[in-house]
## 1
Amino acid sequence: MFTAELDGQPFTTTVGKILCIGRNYAAHAAELNNPLPDQAVLFIKAADAACDLRQPLQIPKDQGSVHHELEIALLMGKSLKHATPEEALDAIAGVGLGLDLTLRDVQAGLKQKGLPWERAKSFDGACPLSPFVSAANVSDWHNLHFSLTRNGQLQQQGHSANMLYPVAQLLSEMSSVFTINPGDVIMTGTPEGVGPLLPGDQLCLTLEDWLSVTSEVSA
Ligand code: ZN
């Protein structure tokens, strides 16, 4: 069980399921040679994938490359089912950053065979989460800048304006398939620049001037 932090306090409920979207940024879909889907590619990480980004990251060994996917993460404060985009925005408690850690070689093998992705995406610790700040900070969901440096090198730089499914529409779409509950986390997709993590890597993640979080990959 993992409890997220909102404005410096433990959130009222532990993290539930983690709802994710694949290919929400065209430039990232292109870098993996994936066509743009005609329907949102949704998948779920289990609650045990959630962990504290500030603690040394334990990544699987001997399963090929582990890629970082930097994403804006949303901590949900209300239930949603068949929500309109307006209702959806009102249910967001906090905004932060997450890493959708992906065993890229494992995923490639599963994709090739048409098999589910959980082994590559939903292993324990596959979703390190930053602390969250109140969603009340956000005046425009289409204008959020975020970045990831690895060992001092800029790897990923995102702007929410480039989301194919912007936050409100994404939540509305997800809630038409899955009931969203308080404590659930939404991962909003990764911009281009994904790449492998190695033991000892030093990471720095930023979201606007609200968050600047450092982390390292366990040696
Ligand atoms: Zn992702």
Note: Residues 5-216 form a domain with the Fumarylacetoacetate hydrolase; domain 2 fold (CATH 3.90.850.10).
## 2
Amino acid sequence: MDTIKLKDLTFKPYISKEEIATAVKNVAARINKDLADKNPLFLCVLNGAFVFAADLFREINIPDAEISFIRMKSYIGTHSTGEVHMISGLHEDISGRTVVIIEDIVDSGFTLIQLKEKLQECNPADIKVATLLFKPESLKYDVNIDYVALDIPPAFIVGYGLDYDELGRNLKDIYTIVQD
Ligand code: 5GP
Ligand code: MG
């Protein structure tokens, strides 16, 4: 596979679609086992998690599982703005329910800690977190992540739902930035 250019940046292939599929299935199997007797509400954090959520949710075999979507934004370009906005909120009643946040990537953990705080106000029974990617070396906040598909070093990546200035979400594989 070749490098690709998105606007001013070059990216090289990093995690293949086959590796991603295996990692997603492994996470789904763990969730299926842990939450088999619950009626979990999966909460996909848009935009980045939409591809992961679609693949993960179709591997979930819990009969009472439901999915919904919320929208958050903290990144502009390749840098976090340090501020998280919940652009479109939650319409479901989550009190007494197990919620499974579906994230594309946990970097500093700031987005996740903010989201968990907001959801706690609605009195869920439990909040679990499933993320496609986790950058352990970038974590700055003390936030528990229950299910990680893939650990990665702190470089900027795109593809499989993740963007660079809204581009690259349609890439089937994950690409990492080429530093010059
Ligand atoms: P955090 O709040 O944990 O620092 O950042 C989380 C959010 O930043 C993610 O949900 C994602 O939208 C964005 N983000 C963090 N790292 C990357 C990355 O390497 N690539 C892309 N495309 N987005 C990232
Ligand atoms: Mg995100």
Note: The chain has a mean pLDDT of 93.
## 3
Amino acid sequence: MSASADGNGGLALPGLASFACHPAHSRGRRYTEAEAPTRTAFQRDRDRVIHSTAFRRLVYKTQVFLNHEGDLFRTRLTHSLEVAQLGRSIARSLRLNEDLVEAIALAHDLGHTPFGHAGQDALNTCLKALASDAGLVEADGWGFEHNLQSLRVVDKLEERYPAFDGLNLCFETREGILKHCSRANAQRLEAQEPGGVAARFLHGGSPSLEAQLCNLADEIAYNAHDIDDGVRSGLLTLEQLDEVPLFAHYRRQALAAHPSLGGRRLLFESIRLMLSEQVYDVIDTTRAAIDIAGVQDVQAVRRASPLVAFSPDMRERSQVLKSFLLRNLYRHPQVVETTDRARRVVSDLFALYMSQPAELPEGHGQPQAQPQQLARAVADYIAGMTDRFAIREHERLCGAVLFP
Ligand code: MG
């Protein structure tokens, strides 16, 4: 890892706390680059993410509802924008680096397969089955995991620059993208990049506050927008949501202030109040935790336990909402039925490209490759697909119409 060449210490960042990530002290990029004259290293990362191919694909990738089920449901793109908005808002209050938060938030889901978690599960199953047939053991870290894939997109799969693969993002942005990692995968990453983004999964430690914040902003965003999308789809009702104390509380508050409010406006107002309250809760709780820990710089943050958090009460109430959404929305028979078909699209495509690698477009794996290398190339290709491209490609190659 090179020292930061474009930390841009010259661009003043007034108001940034000492425990925030300062671009001038970045741990740098994997390939040294000259500074940009008008942007800090993290602004530049954010811009690189926005201009990437993987980012544009997010618009046609499922969050919960398949893209063609309705124009108003969240997609991975609008979800990522909402995470960035919430993240920036909280970052500003805590005097953290908003640009870094935005870069991480916009990149955090780049590695998602088509069809959301169903696609990821299917791809993981395919790769694991192939590994066990080939006698590889689980410890090799073989499989598919979207966090790891997001890092792979920004480190390797984007082909935009003459001198390197990937987007060559700063350590801090990559650290935030890799929010979970199994020990086996961490060992593999650590071997390629000693002391790099996977080290904390082997030796302990926390990521930057900006990375911690994106993680929580992700949760705040999807809990809120999945209520909205759930009701919009007709799979959840406002009455049913009364069993969720967190939501019921703000619905009562909305009605107390506006007794005649009903329908969508009541839903929006309740979600708005809930979002605001959760944001204030994170800001207050985190500010207090930072004070108590007495962290003065990023090194101290990395040595400390995670500091960005909900209060215990909000954590518990948010957990109840999460399990409600799991039971009533993510496992709703209608959602499950769609995801079953989505799983089939992904597994069929995987089997087909493995047996007929010539069907892969140029640049996606060599026909003579070893099965393991071919499987990774196939997984990369499928993971990069949008929902609708995967559906079309499945129809073309497998002849079945699963999504008429
Ligand atoms: Mg997300």
Note: Residues 79, 108-109, 218 surround magnesium ion (CB under 6 Å).
## 4
Amino acid sequence: MFLLDKHRGLPAYVPGDHEEGGGFIRLNTNESPYPPSPGVAAAVEREIGKLNYYNDPDCTALREALARRYGVAPSQVIAANGSDEILYFAFMAFSDGEHPIALPDITYGYYDLFAASLGIPLEKIPLKADFTLDYRDYCGVGKTIVFPNPNAPTGYAIPLEQIAEIARTNPDNVVIIDEAYVDFGAESALSLIGQHENLLIVRTFSKSRSMAGARIGFAMGSEALISDLETIRNSVNLYSVSRMAQAAGVAAIREDDYYMANCRRIIEAREFTTRMLRDQGFEVLDSLGNFVFAKPSAMSAAALKFQLRERGILVRHWDKDRIRDYLRITIGTMQEMQALDAAIEMIFGRA
Ligand code: PMP
């Protein structure tokens, strides 16, 4: 009742069903099916006794570890509470009512909500009929640009040269490339940040690094861009990466081989899943993410989502134009994907 009128129309993000326990196979929120590496638990444990002290607001150790891992300077890295917070800071820093954002019509849903809460107008650029993104639609648009590469929920990525061209033709605007899913087979645009001061690469520990619940996101870009984001962070939420999250992040980078090996397992399971779903009559996009976007032929996507839930498997569906015939299915372990195969066979009455 005290909420300002301007906030009354704010849409609410509808997250995937959160079923803690209950024996569900969770293929609905693009989490990793693998737990964090052993060093993470030990590192978090060490922080617990120090919780009476504030965490390092500069995330120094984490930024240094990331800088070494990715071959950039620590001043080119910023960390925050999940990549959602990084994205929010970036929207705040680079856009407002007079500085709109251009983005695909089908993409990560939170961009819409961040923009709505900040009063930022959006120019939604439709993906092609086959869900591919035509980079020429973004060349010279003269607005802040954001999209994931690979895109979600399609899983399609565009090559580096096209990202470079988008950045080159929008020199006065920031181009935000959300690389939440890049470790599953797409090419990172990180190598371009030296040439393009306006290019911001956003990453997360939530997918390939098995730590969605720790809330660690980071971004890399020119020192100028990172310093702009620090200005926002310092005025909004300086301590947003907890002691435990910072320590977990550093430990995970130390054990990066474990995570990269898991990415390879997920890619293998994705190839299996794509073939399996096609055999079951689905139309499946060739995804480079830890998920596939697939259209069943034997029944509606909404009905299949419901039926899978009845059998203990959660998948994601949006009742939204252009995509309501599709399900987004997260790639879990091979065993989980085989369970999905068996469940679909039962549902379609073929078992
Ligand atoms: N970007 C994309 C494309 C996503 O799909 C997600 C989460 N599903 C995020 C960003 C946010 O991830 P997090 O805040 O957990 O880092």
Note: The mean pLDDT is 96.
